[in-house]
Amino acid sequence: MGIWFGRNANNRSYKYSDKLAKRIERKGGRTSTGASVLLDMMACKIEPGQLRGEEAEQAARSLTEVAPKLRRGDREVVLAIARDAEEASDVGSWTLYA
After folding, report:
1. Which of 24, 30, 32 is nearest to 70 (CA)?
2. Is pLDDT of 2 > 50?
3. CA–CA gap between residue 87 and residue 93 (Å, rounded)
4. Rounded mean pLDDT of 26-35?
5. Which long-range contacts (CB under 8 A, 24 or more apart) does 90-97 make?
6. How many CA atoms within 13 Å lie on the side-chain side of 60?
7. Can you tell me the distance from the alpha carbon of 90 to that of 98, in angstroms, rounded to the nearest whole number?
8. pLDDT, tens only, 52-70
């Protein structure tokens, strides 16, 4: 996916993922357990880890619902993350690395 979900505050991708998580939350994207866990990982409130299939599916659904409320660039990134989450839900789990 190319977004850093780690605790390297000097990394531009880390800063973007943190800001994006906050934008998603402000637009009402924290609507499920899966979305909450993903947003917390993106904002480095918790360490990156694994979402189970159901959580990945929930995250995908929540992100897809909030995407139209975001600006174009952010919307495209959120939809890409949602597609990854949806594919992961089909496999059974989604591991996010830092």
Report:
1. 24
2. no
3. 9
4. 95
5. 90/53, 91/53, 92/52, 92/53, 93/50, 93/51, 93/52, 93/53, 93/56, 94/50, 94/51, 94/55, 94/56, 95/49, 95/50, 96/5, 96/38, 96/41, 96/48, 96/49, 96/50, 96/51, 97/5, 97/48
6. 19
7. 23
8. 999 999 999 999 999 999 9
Q: Is 51 exposed, middle or buried (0-12, 13-18, 19+ CB in 10 A)?
A: buried
The amino acid present at 9, given as its one-letter code, is A
**Measuring CA to CA, how many Å separate 16 from each of 9, 33, 87, 94, 95?**
10, 22, 23, 21, 20
Cα angle 69, 76, 89; round to 5? 95
The percent of residues above 90 in pLDDT, for the chain, comes to 55
